[in-house]
């Protein structure tokens, strides 16, 4: 995945809970983006970032309650190798009323500022083994199952609630975000993103980290 260009979608949350809370709006906006991803598969890679405004809110929450809140990602940052693909993505989603009412969308695709890159991260779907798979694994009744352990981890991760095209059912996609140490940008991987914009285990890649404006 060559992350040459990017756009940002900043989500405008206006409540601490309910339908205008950040997690709910993030899911709503992402599902619009996910639909556009399906039209041009394997072209777009997704990163999650936190705006300066959201960072200040998190700091205020920590001061008020004396504990560090979970990361509140309010930026969907989308990368592509080609500028025209991101321009087409903007055209496909900019007129949706939820984008217009609850998000700030980049007006044009931007060059990745290579001189300002501060790190690299990988974004993968966090897998939870099904209970059916668990039955085929050796177990210790005194220990939690792999399913239980992975489920506990998943509850602490950012996630999307995605609607299946085939069945119409909603399911959860937890996002595993990891820092990647790169000795050379050639080591960032050439894998292609899946339909969610995430790296596959068999096709890894890392995305650049740089300041949210």
From TrEMBL:
GO process terms (BP): maintenance of CRISPR repeat elements
Pfam families (alphabetical): Cas_Csy4
InterPro entries xrefs: CRISPR-assoc_prot_Csy4, CRISPR-Cas6/Csy4_sf
Domain of life per record: Bacteria
Molecular functions per Gene Ontology: endonuclease activity
Annotated TM spans: none
Protein name, UniProt field: CRISPR-associated protein cas6/csy4, subtype I-f/ypest
Organism: Acinetobacter gerneri DSM 14967 = CIP 107464 = MTCC 9824
